[in-house]
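stuck on this fold:
=====
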Amino acid sequence: MKGNGAKNMILDVISESIENEGIFDHIGDIIMKDLRDVERHTISAIENCRLQVIERLEKKLGFITVDRLDFPSDSDDNLNSKNELIRNIVTTTAPAIEKMMKSIGSLSGKSIAELRDVLTA
């Protein structure tokens, strides 16, 4: 996983997760709710997207992170390094997911390809 291949895989995973979360299917509902509901929905959607990103990356990379198995952190050096890789990827993608969510009002009706451009801006 080097260069643009890894970046594209991560963007695909984020896009799929956002799409699966149905965020853009419910723009009207979100706009109609009061601000507290929108905030709660947004926080929930971000967390759901993060979880989906972790799960999808685990499937694509072929392993499960230490945190999700609840193993002691020093149980397996190889697993720990893979866990660190996932943690780093999620840490770097979380701001992109949050940026996407904050822009939700101005992005309604855009395709996933267009949303990918927003993630890389």
Residues 42 and 65 are 25 Å apart (CA to CA). DSSP finds seven helices and no strands in the chain. Residues 3-112 form one domain.
